[in-house]
Write a structure and sequence with these properties.
The complex is a heterodimer of chains A (114) and B (377).
Chain A (H helix, E strand, L loop, with lengths): L1 E5 L8 E4 L5 E6 L2 E6 L13 E3 L2 E3 L6 E3 L16 E7 L2 E5 L17
Antiparallel strand pairs in A: 1-9, 2-3, 3-4, 4-8, 5-6, 6-7, 8-9
Chain B lengths: L11 E2 L4 H4 L1 H12 L4 E5 L8 E7 L2 E7 L5 E5 L14 E3 L3 E3 L6 E3 L4 E3 L18 E7 L2 E5 L7 H13 L14 E10 L3 H9 L4 H4 L1 H6 L17 E2 L28 E7 L3 E5 L3 E11 L2 E10 L1 H5 L5 H21 L13 E2 L6 H12 L5
Antiparallel strand pairs in B: 1-18, 2-11, 3-4, 3-6, 4-5, 5-10, 7-8, 8-9, 10-11, 12-17, 13-14, 14-15, 15-16, 16-17
Helix pairs in contact in B: 4-8
The chains are: A mainly beta (114), B alpha+beta (377).
The complex binds FE2/S2 (inorganic) cluster (FES) (2 copies) and fe (ii) ion.
């Protein structure tokens, strides 16, 4: 479990990025918290910089939307889903339990020195 | 050629021909005049909602104006901070949330901040405000967005508002026309093949009126005498006795705008706001010109005809009303284009002359040469 932040630290319609080997984004959509991989599966964009609307986040770069419940991409240019992670709130603190599935790697623009 | 010593007192010199034709001098004017002064570049009502944008030329720069999600209108240099691509190519449009560079997709929030970019989260040393769009000063007045590229712009009240007040004979005198609330009834963009100063000089004098403006001198007979309203301060040129309105055929116009007293009725006022705005005021509408010089011999002029919103919303026929100044514009710009080739003639190397009813134009020439400074003396 990764400790993220205080439960009231993410306003509705916003998201925050949690750094790590595979960065994760936690969003508040209409009062419910969701966690998905932060990196868009199209190119290396941070979905936490995107826009939350109706249980989906729109990628800030090329506007693919990801369903916060399933991780599915709404349509091109992103094709692969992002992983979803379980969110736990305990004693006012948000935790994320990482999925054990392998993370997708962006299909474009991934020639980044790491 | 007339030398200074031989010149009769009735005549004052114009600027030499090269001021109207030399690309190097034009570049200097762009730098020292159009990149330092306040310029009216957009009607704010044309940028009504969040995400509405327009681009405008200002000196040698391109500027993008965009209304934020907070309702605030802002201006930025239209250049991407990454590798310098022009951000917005369209003259106007609507974006949802961001301005995105078409090259590598650096994505800017409408307040200019860098909102996203490929791999940005791996570059956590990048300050998103510092690498946001570069802001340009913007002030709203008379329903227009005025921008200034100077690092510290001239005081707007002193540089712009005072020029209008002086011509109309009083602080706030222009408020009576409530320009900010008027609706654009017609807009015409003229592509004029003439130097911007020829257009200003033409606008400032009426020595030509009797010769090239038959319709205008029908409506304002005193213009046939050659003295422009701008020759005086606080002076409105009177309509002819048998003229009902400021229309192409002298027929009636529309009711006077709300704030105008009877003393302003049946009169025409004209104001030049250096370096690129002309305002023409009559009781039932306003004609507002904005110039954008694009080359020594080419100037784009956007002209708005502004009416009471009720006139436009009611679908009134503004044809006869707007046609009068449209003809004046065509006649004036044709005259300016007729002069442009002469600016490169050997005859005009030392310039031409101003007759007494044009002597006030010498003040404009002095302003230009002072702005250009030592480069032209
Ligand atoms: S980077 Fe997300 S859609 Fe292209
Ligand atoms: S030049 Fe604009 S993103 Fe590269
Ligand atoms: Fe004229």
């Amino acid at each position: 479990m990764i400790e993220v932040c205080a439960a009231d630290a993410i306003p509705a319609g916003e998201g925050i990025r949690v750094d790590g080997d595979v960065p994760v984004a936690v969003f508040n959509s209409g009062g419910t918290l969701y966690a998905i991989d932060d990196t868009c599966t199209h190119q290396d964009a941070s979905l936490a910089d995107g826009w939350v609307e109706e249980c989906a986040v729109e990628c800030p770069l090329h506007a693919s939307c990801f369903d916060l419940r399933t991780g599915q991409a709404s349509g091109p240019p992103a094709r692969k889903p992002v992983r979803t992670h379980r969110v736990v709130v305990a004693d006012g603190i948000v935790y994320v339990e990482l999925s054990s599935d392998p993370a997708a790697v962006p299909t474009a623009g991934s020639l980044v020195p790491s | 050629m007339t030398t200074a010593a031989a010149r009769p007192a009735s005549l004052l010199p114009t600027l030499p021909g090269r001021f109207y034709a030399d690309p190097a001098l034009f570049a200097l004017e762009q730098e020292r005049i159009f990149e330092t002064q306040w310029l009216a570049v957009a009607r704010t009502a044309d940028l009504a909602g969040p995400g509405a944008f327009q681009t405008a030329g200002a000196g040698r720069e391109s500027v993008v104006l965009v209304r934020g999600r907070d309702g605030v209108l802002r201006a930025f240099l239209n250049v991407c901070r990454h590798r310098g691509a022009r951000l917005c190519e369209q003259p106007a449009g609507q974006v949802a949330r961001t301005l995105q560079c078409p090259y590598h997709a650096w994505t800017y929030a409408l307040d200019g901040r860098l909102a996203a970019a490929p791999n940005l989260s791996r570059m956590d040393d990048i300050d998103r405000a510092a690498y946001g769009l570069v802001p340009v000063h913007l002030t709203e007045w008379l329903g227009y967005a005025w921008i200034c590229l100077a690092a510290s712009p001239p005081d707007f009240a002193a540089a712009v508002q005072a020029a209008v007040a002086e011509r109309l004979g009083g602080d706030g005198a222009i408020d009576a026309w409530s320009l900010g609330t008027l609706a654009v009834g017609r807009r015409v963009t003229y592509d004029v093949r003439a130097n911007w100063k020829l257009i200003i000089e033409n606008f400032m004098e009426c020595y030509h009126c009797a010769t090239i403006h038959p319709e205008l001198t029908e409506v304002i007979p005193e213009f046939a005498g050659g003295y422009a309203a701008q020759y005086y301060t606080g002076y409105g040129a009177a309509f002819g006795d048998d003229v009902q309105g400021f229309t192409v055929d002298g027929t009636g116009g529309f009711p006077a705008l709300g704030g105008l007293g009877a003393d302003r009725d049946r009169r025409y006022y004209a104001v030049t706001v250096r370096p690129q705005v002309f305002i023409n005021l009559v009781s039932d509408h306003v004609i507002f010109h904005r110039m954008t010089p694009v080359a020594a011999d080419r100037t784009i002029v956007d002209c708005d005809w502004l009416y009471a919103p009720s006139v436009i919303a009611g679908g009134a026929d503004i044809g006869q009303s707007a046609e009068l100044f449209h003809r004046v514009n065509q006649q004036d710009f044709a005259a300016c284009e007729r002069c442009q080739p002469g600016m490169s003639s050997r005859l005009y190397a030392g310039g031409g002359v101003l007759v007494p009813s044009e002597h006030h134009i010498a003040g404009f020439h002095a302003w230009v040469t002072e702005a250009l400074g030592d480069a032209v003396t």
